[in-house]
TrEMBL record:
This is Luciferase-like domain-containing protein. Residues 43-347 form the Luciferase-like domain. The keyword Metal-binding does not apply. Pfam families: Bac_luciferase. InterPro entries: Luciferase-like_dom, Luciferase-like_sf, SsuD_RutA_monooxygenase. Gene3D superfamilies: Luciferase-like domain (3.20.20.30).
């Protein structure tokens, strides 16, 4: 196993790139099926869903993502339910621009935002898989899908802000004499996009409020953040907030955590091979079309472990079918690893587990408070605390994940 990259500087100065405030995201789950224990159902378990989103709020999460897929629940309806089941949690509605007219989506989002008193967020998915897009009648090539997203974003914002009726004739959308549209609770609604193609960076830097990444090695994320910031700077607009996503695998000791990580990778791989959690129908066994998955598999081929705690074998096990890179270790090690990304400028951190409900509770009890305590220390003293120095994880000399996990 290649050695992890060297540890960041161990001095206590807060890096100039570090985010001062961090908010936490989790994905909502509408039934108890998981990649570890798949339940053969396409249905919604209302009691489980109520428990899940209320657990997220009690655990200290700030946002929850309502994902979108052609065979899954409607993200708008689920987001509205989140708004009514919680008081503070902000629903992030995943939307594919091919599925609805932008003025209708603007109306839906403004309605959700008013009902939740300003909590709505939208995450636009241009579409990274031709087969999945075709399931709902979208046959645009990938590059043109991003161009459609750019026009879609412009029309969302105009629908929320234009004081009088307006008409539009663009490449993808045409209408006459619309508006003024329904306004959000506040001035606007945050718009997030993700992806790692050239088109994604260009649109994200020029138009998005939030840019989303899957978990990658620190040096690579740093380069990607610099890239999206450079596009925003050239466009003369505020830099998007940076959202990174991980699947932490946490236990009381590093040894227990790494044993769990190896066991999880095997179980997740079996689920994927059997097609029992919906991953195979979307991604297939071949090379994924989207750049983010291609990059995840590239990193997995290079090493199992990067930096303090990044574990890529889970991505390899699923052919990088969605966000699938883990952070492995004790709560302290995982919190320190999250702070490594915060130091690069990530201020939205998505942590969702493989044992969905139990992990959400555990992160809220054992991981999120450690990150917030460190940020409070930095705010009070202007210096980093000892968490990153004291919990080296894979940065420690002689680290060997195989040995910790008892792998021979």
């Amino acid at each position: 196993m290649p050695a992890p990259t060297p540890s960041p500087d161990s001095d206590r100065a807060v890096p100039p790139t570090a985010a001062r405030k961090v908010e936490f995201i989790s994905q909502s789950h509408l039934n108890p099926s998981t990649e570890l224990n798949p339940v053969p159902t396409r249905g919604i378990d209302p009691a489980f869903f109520r428990t899940y989103v209320r657990t997220l709020e009690a655990a200290g999460y700030d946002y929850t993502l309502l994902p979108y897929g052609s065979a899954g629940p409607d993200s708008f309806v689920a987001a509205s339910a989140v708004g009514q089941l919680t008081e503070r949690l902000r629903p992030i509605v995943a939307v594919r621009p091919n599925t609805a007219f932008p003025l209708v989506v603007a109306q839906q989002l403004a309605t959700l935002d008013q009902l939740t008193e300003g909590r709505a967020v939208v995450h636009l998915i241009s579409g990274g898989n031709d087969t999945e897009q075709a399931r709902q009648g979208d046959y645009l090539p990938k590059q043109r899908r991003y161009a459609r997203t750019a026009e879609f974003i412009d029309l969302l914002r105009r629908a929320w802000t234009e004081p009088a009726a307006f008409s539009h004739e663009g490449e993808f959308y045409r209408f006459d004499d619309f508006g003024p549209g329904l306004r959000p609770h506040g001035d606007s609604i945050p718009i997030s996009i993700g992806g790692q193609s050239d088109e994604a960076f260009e649109i994200g830097g020029r138009q998005a409020d939030v840019f989303s990444f899957w978990g990658e090695p620190l040096a690579d994320i740093r380069a990607q953040i610099d890239r999206v910031h450079a596009v925003a700077d050239t466009a003369g607009r505020p830099r998007p907030r940076i959202w990174v996503t991980f699947r932490p695998i946490v236990d009381r000791t590093d040894e227990l955590a790494w044993r769990k990580a190896y066991a999880y990778a095997e179980r997740i791989g079996r689920t994927f091979r059997e097609g029992s959690y919906g991953l195979r129908p979307l991604t297939g066994p071949g090379t994924p079309q989207n750049v983010g998955s291609q990059r995840a598999l590239h990193f997995a081929a290079g090493a199992d472990v990067y930096d303090r705690a990044l574990w890529t074998r889970t991505a390899a096990a699923t052919n990088a079918g969605g966000a699938s890179t883990a952070l492995v270790g004790t709560p302290e090690t995982v919190a320190a690893a999250i702070l490594d990304y915060v130091d690069l400028g990530a201020d939205l951190v998505s942590i969702r587990g493989y044992d969905n409900l139990a992990d959400a509770r555990d992160y809220g009890t054992h991981v999120i408070p450690l990150v917030r305590q460190e940020l409070a220390h930095r705010e009070a003293t202007g210096l980093r605390g000892g968490l990153q120095v004291d919990h080296q994880g894979a940065f420690a000399p002689g680290f060997d994940a195989d040995a910790l996990a008892g792998v021979r």
